[in-house]
From TrEMBL:
PANTHER family: CORA FAMILY METAL ION TRANSPORTER (EUROFUNG). This is Magnesium transporter CorA family protein. Belongs to the CorA metal ion transporter (MIT) (TC 1.A.35) family. Gene3D superfamilies: CorA soluble domain-like, Magnesium transport protein CorA, transmembrane region. Keywords: Cell membrane, Membrane, Transmembrane, Transmembrane helix, Transport.
Length: 330
């Protein structure tokens, strides 16, 4: 069975906050943008060179920015060009304790937004639903800033969900550390994976502060004053992601130190028990060794001597067992 063809580019145009058109060809974007009251969105999934050439001609994009959009593993950033900005962010998803990062690029013009995806990690249907439910969709001047707000709000919300999933994973590791079974190998494996996931999440969350700070700069005029509180709310959520990731890293480090301390304590308990049993066994060893000398002794070769040695072994071993039990060594 052959693989499914990649999704076709998705397009949508708004006028006065209402959907004017949807699913129109990419070549018609410039026609819609000629109207001063229309905002356009274009989504590209694994775009080909021909599609990128059409988009570049329609919006006048710089070849360097286009190259950044199609290349993989670019850092999270916001670059400004003449007449538009290039945004690159990451969407984290946690499944079965594993963190995967999905890259999302976007070209932000005054009245146009172009998103570029290389995989299905970012749900554009959820993004469209968020835009449709936006309470301010029909207010204010026509600008793509509202679309950018909805996109960044969804990305940061997914980052918050990822850090919460890693928090749950940290709770599971904590339960194993303080549990009775104490699976050392499993604790080491999951704690290492957790620290690696937190480092990756922190690496994509920290640059988001710079991205939001740049968008909120008044001298750049990328965000209208009416939308500033909304972007400020996204910035606050970004701070929460970074702070929770840092707190979880410290928690995991404390858990690892606690695991070593508990493992050392358990080893001490085992050594106490081994030492206690060795002391108990030493009593019959000493008695039988003493009576095993090849010289006559009281009770030698007599039934009374055997009874005496047995009583000594039982009494002294029992006394040692009781003493060690009372001291919680056994």
């Amino acid at each position: 069975m052959g693989s499914d063809p990649p999704p076709r580019p998705r397009t949508r145009a708004w006028r006065d906050g209402e959907i004017e058109a949807e699913g129109f060809p990419v070549a018609e974007i410039s026609d819609y943008l000629e109207r001063p009251d229309v905002v356009v969105w274009l989504d590209l999934f694994k775009p080909t060179s021909e599609e990128l050439l059409v988009v570049s001609d329609e919006l006048g994009l710089d070849p360097v920015a286009v190259e950044d959009a199609v290349s993989r593993h670019e850092r999270a950033k916001l670059d400004r060009y003449h007449g538009y900005a290039f945004l690159n962010v990451y969407v984290p998803l946690v499944e079965a304790g594993e963190l995967t990062l999905h890259e999302l690029s976007a070209f932000i013009a005054e009245r146009a937004l172009v998103t570029v995806r290389q995989d299905h990690g970012f749900d554009v249907d959820a993004l469209c639903e968020r835009w449709d439910q936006s309470p301010d969709a029909g207010h204010g001047e026509p600008t793509a800033a509202l679309l950018v707000y909805g996109m960044l709000d969804l990305v940061v919300d997914l980052q918050l969900e990822a850090v919460q999933a890693l928090d749950d994973e940290a709770d599971a590791v904590e339960d194993m550390v303080f549990g009775d079974e104490f699976p050392v190998r499993e604790i080491q494996r999951r704690s290492y994976r957790l620290r690696k996931n937190l480092a990756a999440l922190r690496r994509i969350a920290l640059p988001m502060r710079e991205v939001l700070n740049t968008l909120l700069r008044r001298d750049l005029r990328l965000v209208p004053p009416a939308l500033t509180p909304y972007f400020q709310d996204v910035y606050d959520h970004t701070l929460r992601v970074g702070e929770q990731a840092d707190a979880l890293r410290d928690l995991v480090a404390d858990l690892l130190d606690t695991r070593l301390a508990l493992q050392s304590n358990r080893m001490n308990e085992v050594m106490k028990k081994v030492t206690s049993w060795a002391a108990i066994i030493a009593v019959p060893t000493a008695v039988t060794g003493f009576y095993g000398q090849n010289v006559p002794y009281p009770g030698f070769a007599q039934h009374d001597g055997f009874i005496a040695s047995t009583v000594i072994i039982v009494v002294f071993s029992g006394v040692l067992y009781v003493v060690f039990k009372l001291r919680d060594w056994l």
